[in-house]
């Protein structure tokens, strides 16, 4: 097979290689019916560029798929966290308990309040026990959010009790004005339940 | 359709499939082509006449390598571009059952010499 080295063809080959090297794989060597070995090289470069585009498209598709999956997982995780963050338990007919765990910011407090108020109405609850055993420290926005929750429960006619307040949390509650609400605080959830049941006449009055 | 199939007989009486190929060949076309020669035309002698201007997509080129498992196959083309494309596609295969010709009679003579 003959080889016709044409300056113009070599120049074009180099231009295509430089352009492809800068990341533009859409460029192609112009092909003509030349019966020589350089045509193999020219077409080979075009085929290589086809392959690069194919791989790039596959990578983009995989990336998109991974992003979609990540978004889906994040949404599922958010839903799960939301469900776990408001585990409202009916401990006795008309008596709800809500163990609070972790940091409670404004957004979470709003979600918890909304879910809790819905349950207070649905269960016609007379008492709500907020258990703070899982709250190690109260962040800046947590206490006002908690106090709003207590007020809202009161407006629906239910009585709110706080339990499991840790020693390091108690001063924070006082400092943030929590004691103005005159909410009954007890050591353990079981104490609160005993008190409520006594209020309802189910149990003898416990020590207060 | 980029393929037109005919069932013919060589001058020495051997049946073969003559395929006229033209236009743009994409992956679907390549799949159809391979399916014919690994299916109903399995082990049949093949003469493909590829027209000037015929082009293959990257995926089609890769898929056509499966023709390696088909029967003896001669391709006839008078286009340097098509010949180069086929050379590049088959370069790594080194398949003794496959050859490219510029002349159909020479291709038929070669096919006639091939064992079924």
Question: What does this protein look like?
Answer:
The complex is a heterodimer of chains A (208) and B (116). In chain A, strands 1-2-3-4-5 form a five-stranded mixed sheet, with helices on both faces. The mean pLDDT of chain A is 86. The radius of gyration of chain A is 35 Å and the shape is rod-shaped. Chain A has two domains: 72 residues; 114 residues, Transcription Regulator spoIIAA. The relative contact order of chain A is 0.09. In chain A, helix 3 runs parallel beside helix 4. Chain A has six helices and five strands. The longest helix of chain A is centred in the N-terminal third of the chain and has 49 residues. Chain A is an alpha/beta fold and 208 residues long. The radius of gyration of chain B is 13 Å and the shape is globular. In chain B, the strands form two sheets. Chain B has a five-stranded mixed sheet with strand order 1-2-4-6-7, with helices on both faces. Chain B has a two-stranded parallel ribbon with strand order 3-5. Chain B is an alpha/beta fold. The mean pLDDT of chain B is 92. Chain B has a single domain, classed as 3-Layer(aba) Sandwich (Rossmann fold). The longest helix of chain B has 12 residues. Chains A and B meet through helix 2 of A and helix 2 and helix 3 of B. Chain A: This is STAS domain-containing protein. Chain A: Pfam families: STAS (PF01740). Chain A: Keywords: Coiled coil.
Per DSSP E runs of 2 or more residues, the count of β-strands of chain A stands at 5
Quickly count the domains of chain A.
Answer: 2
Helicity of chain B, as a percent range: 25-40%
* Count of DSSP strands of chain B: 7
- Low-confidence region ranges of chain B: none
Organism (chain B): Nannocystis punicea
Protein name (chain B): STAS/SEC14 domain-containing protein
InterPro entries (chain B): STAS_dom_sf
Domain STAS (chain A): 85-196
């Amino acid at each position: 097979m003959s080889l016709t080295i044409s300056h113009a063809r070599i120049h074009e080959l180099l231009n295509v290689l430089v352009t492809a090297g800068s990341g533009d794989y859409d460029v192609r060597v112009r092909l003509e019916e030349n019966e020589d070995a350089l045509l193999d090289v020219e077409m080979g470069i075009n085929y290589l560029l086809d392959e690069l585009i194919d791989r790039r498209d596959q990578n983009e598709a995989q990336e998109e798929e991974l992003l979609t999956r990540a978004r889906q997982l994040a949404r599922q995780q958010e839903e799960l966290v939301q469900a776990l963050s408001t585990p409202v338990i009916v401990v006795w007919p008309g008596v709800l308990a809500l163990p609070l765990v972790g940091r409670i910011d404004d957004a979470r407090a709003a979600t918890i309040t909304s879910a809790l108020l819905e349950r207070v109405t649905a269960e016609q609850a007379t008492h709500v026990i907020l258990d703070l055993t899982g709250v190690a420290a109260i962040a800046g926005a947590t206490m006002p959010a908690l106090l709003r929750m207590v007020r809202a429960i009161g407006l629906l006619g239910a009585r709110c009790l706080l339990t499991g307040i840790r020693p390091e949390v108690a001063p924070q509650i006082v400092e943030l004005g929590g004691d103005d609400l005159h909410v009954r605080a007890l050591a353990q959830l079981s104490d609160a339940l005993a008190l409520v049941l006594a209020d309802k006449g189910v149990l003898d009055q416990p020590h207060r | 359709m980029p393929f037109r199939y005919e069932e013919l007989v060589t001058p020495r009486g051997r049946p073969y499939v003559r395929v006229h190929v033209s236009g743009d060949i994409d992956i679907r076309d390549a799949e159809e082509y391979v399916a014919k020669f690994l299916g109903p035309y399995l082990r049949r002698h093949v003469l493909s006449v590829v027209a000037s201007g015929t082009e293959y997509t990257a995926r089609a080129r890769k898929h056509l390598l499966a023709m390696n498992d088909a029967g003896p196959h001669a391709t006839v083309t008078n286009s340097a571009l098509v010949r180069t494309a086929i050379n590049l596609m088959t370069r790594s295969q080194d398949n003794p059952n496959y050859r490219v010709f510029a002349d159909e009679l020479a291709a038929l003579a070669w096919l006639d010499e091939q064992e079924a």
